[in-house]
């Protein structure tokens, strides 16, 4: 059984919602990424999404775009991402890690090579923002071959035919985009989200986790009540950068913030 499946089943037994923080690998520095991963787990993270730096992160708002830019300026590559996961796994064999990013670097590396290396270092799931399910069959097969879940985005405008494909190809959990816009946007209509999630839950078999537009403990609690968990990225990255270049301050800021979200959930 995969770490993601085990984690969500255990959370369900305990009556808890999944807390899934997102950070960009290599931001604010290459060496800070692994300590940040461990600090997130210590603060209450159930799953972690680790962003693979890319030059054109089209779904991201300004905060995460800048995180990608900083990571690339720091020299972050896919090989660095794999190395970070491998180092993290030396101390943590249980927390699921999901790589989130864009297709171009993976196309360059090759599906088989990427999937094999991701499995070797201990990746549990992969979410590619610009890989639609209609074009995802071959890549999903490679991931499945190596025991890795394919995670897909579901938006407020996703139609039933695409939902069927996502349900067939997906694993781990579904990532529900709670609004029309980029990460970090604030125009969130919770009543509209709740209505749509009720419709989706009758059609899908995997846990539904909600992201985009979650800013604080209140919005996290409100949205988590509608699904199986929440993803928080922009607000977390803002907290990380309040620590400047002081790693101890960075870790303190993120742990305090994530702990408040965990308590709210």
Describe this structure in words.
This protein has 265 residues and is of the alpha/beta class. It has a single domain (3-13, 24-264), classed as Aldolase class I (TIM Barrel, Alpha-Beta Barrel). It has 12 helices and 9 strands. Strands 5-4-3-2-1-9-8-7-6 form a 9-stranded parallel β-sheet. Helix 4 (78-89) packs parallel to helix 6 (111-121) and helix 11 packs antiparallel against helix 12 (247-264). The chain is globular, with a radius of gyration of 17 Å. It starts with a helix and ends with a helix.
- The helix content, as a percent range, equals 40-55%
The level-1 CATH class: Alpha Beta
CATH superfamily: Aldolase class I
Q: Can you tell me the number of structural domains?
A: 1
Oligomeric organization of the protein chains? single chain
* Poorly predicted parts: 181-185
Largest sheet: 9 strands, parallel
Residue-averaged pLDDT, rounded? 92
If you compute it from the alpha carbons, what radius of gyration comes out, rounded to the nearest whole angstrom? 17 Å
H-E order: HEHEHHEHHEHEEHEHEHEHH
Describe the structure concisely.
This protein has 265 residues and is an alpha/beta fold. It has helices at residues 3-14, 33-43, 62-73, 78-89, 103-109, 111-121, 137-145, 160-169, 190-201, 217-224, 234-241, 247-264, and strands spanning 18-24, 48-51, 97-101, 125-128, 149-151, 153-154, 174-177, 208-211, 229-232.
